[in-house]
Amino acid sequence: MVRIVISEMMQKSSSIGKRGTTEVAKKMVAKYPKSLQDVIEGDVIGPGYHSLVKQLQNRLENVKRSTTPKIRKQKHRSDDSDTDEIPPEQKAAVQDTYGCINWNLKFLPFGETPESQEDKKEKLKKLSQMKDPNPEEVKQLMEKTFYTQRKDVNQGKYIKDLLKEWPFWFQELGMAVHFKKLTGKELKETFTQNLERNGKRLLNYMS
């Protein structure tokens, strides 16, 4: 539903802001309160449409997200400090949105064609049906088909379609390979570092 609404809004205007999504959310909730209103145990939360506004805004940002790389400086954060520092010797890195370095690839890998990418994708599908597929083979195929994976994501394919086309994406190995290619960082290492840094704060907030 959110995808359809934003698609219709974008067709009418490409310069939609939060005010526009808020007005649309208010009208939708007013028309379908039982389905869309923010309600907990019978009580309306706030104006009743904040959740829908957030969903619309997130989808709008995804659609409008720039595919042009931006120059940003990598920030260094010590484990015991919340202050970001940029070492003088650290060079600026070419990054796409949300800290990614390979968000939208322009060209196929050297020596690859659409046909060879499709062959590798089909091989990955077959490997996913095996009980014990060779992890190194899976890793290499996931790395070589990264271009096509990103193309499918950036075209806005649904999760159910991505699961069908790229089954290893939803398993630890495939997820780690894609994350490394996308961000230049190791998934487990990044998760562990952030858990150590922010885990206690998160638990305190939730308790």
Summarize the topology.
Elements: H1 2-12, H2 18-31, H3 33-36, E1 39-40, E2 43-44, H4 50-64, E3 70-73, E4 92-95, H5 114-128, H6 135-144, H7 146-154, H8 159-165, H9 172-183, H10 187-206
Antiparallel strand pairs: 1-2, 3-4
How would you briefly describe this protein structure?
Helix content is about 55%, strand content about 5%. With about 210 residues, the protein is mainly alpha-helical.
Description of the molecule:
The protein is mainly alpha-helical. It folds into 3 domains: 2-64, no CATH class; 66-104, no CATH class; 114-183, no CATH class. The protein has helices at residues 2-12, 18-31, 33-36, 50-64, 114-128, 135-144, 146-154, 159-165, 172-183, 187-206; strands at 39-40, 43-44, 70-73, 92-95. α2 (18-31) crosses α4, α5 (114-128) runs antiparallel to α6 (135-144) and α6 runs parallel beside α9. The longest helix is centred in the C-terminal third of the chain and has 20 residues, at 187-206. It starts with a helix and ends with a helix. Residues 66-96 have low confidence and may be disordered.
Order of strands across the main sheet? 1-2
Instruction: Indicate the percent of residues in helices.
Output: 55-70%
The major beta sheet can be summarized as: 2 strands, antiparallel
Unreliable spans are 66-96
State the end-to-end distance.
34 Å
Give the ordered list of helices and strands. HHHEEHEEHHHHHH
Shape: globular
- Average predicted local confidence, pLDDT: 80
What is the β-strand count? 4
Strand content: 5-15%
Global structural class: mainly alpha
**Number of helical stretches of at least 4 residues:** 10
Q: How many independent structural domains? A: 3
Radius of gyration, Cα only, in angstroms?
Answer: 21 Å
